[in-house]
Amino acid sequence: MDKSKLTAQNGAPISDDNNSISVGSRGPLTFDNWQLMEKLAHFNRERIPERIVHARGYGAYGTFRLTKDLSEFSCAKFLQNTGKETPVFARFSTVAGGQDSGDYVRDVRGFALKFYTEEGNWDMVGNNTPVFFLRDPQKFPDFIHSQKKDPKTNLPNPAHHFEFWANNPQSLHQITILMSDRGIPFSLRHINGYSSHTLSLWNDAKKRYWVKWHFKTNQGIKTLNNEQAAQMPAHGMQEDLVQSIQNGDFPTWTVHLQIMPEHEAIDYKINPFDLTKVWPHSDYPLIEIGQLELNRNVGNYFSETEQATFSPANVVPGTGVSPDKMLQARLFAYGDAHRYRVGANHNQLPVNAPQCPVNHYQKDGAMAGMCPYHNNTPNPQNASVNFYPNDRTENGAPAHTPEISEPEMIVNEANIGKYDSRDEDNFSQAGELFRLMTPKQQDFLTGNIADGLSYASPYAQERMISFFQQADPLYGSLVEEKLLNVLETTV
Ligand code: NDP
Ligand code: HEM
């Protein structure tokens, strides 16, 4: 293929790409300026909507190597046989900022992984924190609105952050992590990743286990304080990731699971499906199962990182979800976002395409069956029959596989309704985290909170202090004392 000739989109060589066609050297342009029109029109369409959250992202490819056979817990093929390797695409992100926002903000980091398994893509769409601000998805858009820019000024507004949190005590555990020294990572190589949610595995005998995934950085946790972060170049984390991979200094994570047999969830002292809580390690120890390595940069940021579409609904046989309400809502939200942001056939793009045969009876839609994108998989839409069931399965038309049906899930008899979780235990685990911090970390945490809280209304300040107090009396009194100091010095 001759790559030296500049062409138009139809492949035809272009004689002059510097000058438009005009009537005389000073003249108006003519309508046959198709090359100019194509160039301008395509330019106008270079952007797709950015992600509504996690817009600023950083992607890389890598490998997951299983170091412990998990056939006891799951029939998923990528979890069988020690030493098994599965290709992976990873995307890290910040949550609240736009696509070109700064890298060193105090924010949760997204930690999303796509495992291209031989049975389809399994996505682990987690964060660098083991819990989240909410346990009910009905609150998610309000929460995000409060953390993003003020609708009037288009600036971040700490008063809104704390006004939301003062109305939602369930956020306290996650606030304690966000405001701690871990709130601003030194780099993406120095963060842990967590499924945060309880997910599930199930084995050949149709026995289910609840699991939480932990990806512990082998580079060690490394963080920045506010002053150090302010000195960093706006997009230094992007550079750090690209450079380290380019230099062969591949970041790695040790992968662990916490595993709970299905029936233990019924009587466990904590609701294991509450996303604001962890399972203490003393109850469910970490079991090491693998290594994740990132070892290849993307070839094109837009095609790969920007158009990557991760979804918690991407499960494969032997893996599953859980009754966690937040997770249940996410099963809808991501596919919907992808169809809007990238298009109905987003799964046909190379970064999203499963690295196994894809056969279904879904049809057409924008950009369907783009052959160049299907070098590694058959076009899923080329079956000569487009309905199911049909009479042609004996001749090779795709048929379903009843053996891989997921075990039924037991749901306790309960009334359907809206259940207010406001008065559940919102504080114990925030207190536990506070107590395991060194006095220096506690000082940093409470000083940080006091700075932000000083922008909130006195009413919100009062409620927040009472929440911190309920987590740990020292936590509450340190925040209160530091808040008074900040307020006095800013009067
Ligand atoms: P453990 O003492 O067994 O574990 C404490 C955990 O806290 C370690 O995983 C440690 O991570 C992590 N940690 C330390 N500082 C911070 C911080 N500033 N932000 C986030 N995590 C931090 O305790 P338990 O399992 O009994 O849990 C106690 C508390 O620890 C929980 O309430 C929770 O806040 C926190 N935690 C618990 C996790 C879990 O899955 N059980 C996971 C992460 C945090 P590391 O080893 O990387 O230093
Ligand atoms: C991205 C919704 C909670 C992690 C997104 C996107 C949406 C969304 C719409 C953009 C998707 C896209 O355009 O490709 C929600 C809803 C939630 C929720 C409705 C709760 C009800 C969570 C939680 C986590 C999480 C709890 C982590 C445990 C992520 C990550 C991304 C993301 C990592 C970026 C994925 C990528 O890199 O493309 N979320 N989210 N989200 N979310 Fe959530």
Task: Report the CATH superfamily of the domain at 57-152 and 185-352.
Answer: Catalase core domain
Strand/helix succession? HEEEEHHHEEEHHEHEHEHHHHH
Second-tier CATH architecture of the domain at 57-152 and 185-352 = Beta Barrel
Which overall shape is indicated by the principal axes computed on the Cα atoms? globular
Catalytic activity: 2 H2O2 = O2 + 2 H2O
Pfam families: Catalase, Catalase-rel
InterPro entries: Catalase (IPR018028), Catalase_AS (IPR024708), Catalase_clade1/3 (IPR024711), Catalase_core (IPR011614), Catalase_haem_BS (IPR002226), Catalase_immune_responsive (IPR010582), Catalase_sf (IPR020835)
EC number: 1.11.1.6
In short:
By secondary structure, the protein is an alpha+beta fold.
Describe this structure in words.
- Residues 371-378 have low confidence and may be disordered.
- The protein has 491 residues and is an alpha+beta fold.
- The longest helix is centred in the last third of the chain and has 18 residues, at 473-490.
- Strands 1, 2, 3, 4, 5, 6, 7, 8, 9 and 10 form a 10-stranded antiparallel sheet that branches.
- The protein is 27% helix and 15% strand.
- Helix 11 packs across helix 13.
- A hairpin with a 5-residue loop joins strand 6 (199-202) and strand 7 (208-217).
- The radius of gyration is 26 Å and the shape is globular.
- Among the domains are: 57-152 and 185-352, Catalase HpII,  Chain A, domain 1 (Beta Barrel), CATH 2.40.180.10; 428-490, no CATH class.
- The protein has 13 helices and 10 strands.
- The structure holds NADPH dihydro-nicotinamide-adenine-dinucleotide phosphate and protoporphyrin IX containing FE.
- Residues 51-54, 57, 91, 93, 110, 112, 125-127, 132, 137, 140, 196, 275, 308-310, 326, 329-330, 333-334, 337-338, 341 line the site of protoporphyrin IX containing FE.
- Residues 1-21 are annotated as: Disordered.
- Belongs to the catalase family.
- This is Catalase.
